[in-house]
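Students often ask what a holo structure prediction actually looks like on paper. The answer is less mysterious than it sounds. You provide the chain, you provide the ligand, and the output is a string of discrete structure tokens encoding the 3D arrangement of the protein together with S-adenosylmethionine.
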Amino acid sequence: MMIQATFRRSVWGLLCVQSLWAGMAYAQNSTTPVVPAVLAPALNGAEIIKQESIFQSKGADVPAGYSIDRTLEEYTRGLTANFDRSLATLGTTDRWLDVGAGTGQAILDYYTENYDVEHPQGRESRGRKAKTVALSIEDRRTQAWHQTAARQNANQLQYLFGKPLRDYSLEEMGKFRLISDLLGGFSYTDNLSRYMAKVLDFLEVGGSFYGVLQDVGAEAGLNKPFYPNARFLTEILNADASSVKICAWIKRITCVRATCEFKTDWKPPIEMYHIRKECDEVKVPELVRVHYEAGTPPERRFQLKQLLREGRDQAR
Ligand SMILES: C[S@@+](CC[C@H](N)C(=O)[O-])C[C@H]1O[C@@H](n2cnc3c(N)ncnc32)[C@H](O)[C@@H]1O
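The corresponding structure tokens follow.
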């Protein structure tokens, strides 16, 4: 299956200046443009503006590779098989957060009767279904979102926008049983370790995060970058500049149990991650951004602050 074409290798669409500056929404209290919170000040200004204009693009200006309305069925194919099971067994007091939700189509699909018909296994415990939160930098709510929300109890579905995940506090967000990310913040953030620390902070002990990255060096494989003469889309370098697999970095997070699954029938291929939180003392090995080039998703390179030694048992 073909998922979004990587923007870096396609021609830039003409994005109007208006939408570009609207993109600075979360820095709007100043009269002069301010670096948006999503990108650190050290980033190249041109890349900030390009990335921001992608986030804020509307109508015909949305780049072809920026898919914002994947269905729940596409989520279940893009995330590990456990995601579907985890979602089906959520009860009424549980909460599901989708980071980088776009229009929130996956959440809308969850509230349909069709979902219950197709997922009889968890139906009894599900009752009226879990509470859901869709998170997006830009507001992509549709009429369908407003209609579905109006049919549910207050706060059953929430749509948060205006800032990236890392700018939310635990007090604002509360805890979640399930967090998903299909080519959302995990693929777009310029601070991968902070993103991961936030996700794990918002996760209950026993809860699960399901995420995915495209065009990365697989855990076991000797795969090459998808595009000729290009690097992987997301890379991690060790403190000594040698290469580290994304999966190896994830497995060094303390208090989690993680699996990584490479899927080659997506073009570019994806690596799917299931991270289960096992205790509260989570420590994510810290990364520093060394490269960020705007795109759908952006091309990113990070370096570990401290040397990660190969072959050690996963810390817990
Ligand atoms: C390509 S769309 C994917 C939408 C949806 N997951 C889908 O598959 O249709 C990327 C989404 O990620 C969001 N996003 C990017 N970086 C983010 C961050 N750091 N925190 C939260 N959301 C982010 C964007 O605002 C947008 O909603």
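The domain at 7-304 is CATH 3.40.50.150 (Rossmann fold).
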